[in-house]
């Protein structure tokens, strides 16, 4: 925070990407991984856990689509890729309630480039397999 900034509205403001793209889109989307359902779970679970000063919002694309579903927690600016209600529970307990970090789910700059390279490699292998299967 910069001096003279007003106090934060929330201790933790969590943005959960729930963007949806058509099936087969080259970047995929978080909704394909169940983002809305998991965001709703996270919101309900945070309330159930009695976490104060926490807001869980839907967001549009956060531009980490290949790593999705994704979310980011401010003011820390820590990003996570998650897959399940267990992942959400761990993020809420370890990060939000205890102030720690869930290393196994944390996204870091450069991860998306690795994911894009993995996807490109997989697509090339699939294309080669299709060509081989069709005799080409
Ligand atoms: S669709 Fe979720 S980060 Fe892009």
UniProtKB/TrEMBL annotation:
SUPFAM superfamilies named in the record: Thioredoxin-like
InterPro entries reported in the protein's UniProt record: Thioredoxin-like_sf
Name of the featured protein: Ferredoxin
Organism: Tistrella mobilis
């Amino acid at each position: 925070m910069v001096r003279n900034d007003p106090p934060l509205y929330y201790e933790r403001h969590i943005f959960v990407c729930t963007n949806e793209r058509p099936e087969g889109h080259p970047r995929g989307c978080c909704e394909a991984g169940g983002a809305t359902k998991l965001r709703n779970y996270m919101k309900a679970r945070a309330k159930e856990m009695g976490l104060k000063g926490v807001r869980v919002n839907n967001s549009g694309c956060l531009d980490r689509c290949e790593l999705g579903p994704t979310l980011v927690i401010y003011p820390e600016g820590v990003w996570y890729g998650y897959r399940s209600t267990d992942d959400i529970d761990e993020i809420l307990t370890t990060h939000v309630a205890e102030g720690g970090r869930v290393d196994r789910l944390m996204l870091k700059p450069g991860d998306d480039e690795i994911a894009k390279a993995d996807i490109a490699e997989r697509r090339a292998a699939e294309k080669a397999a299709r060509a081989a299967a069709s005799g080409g």
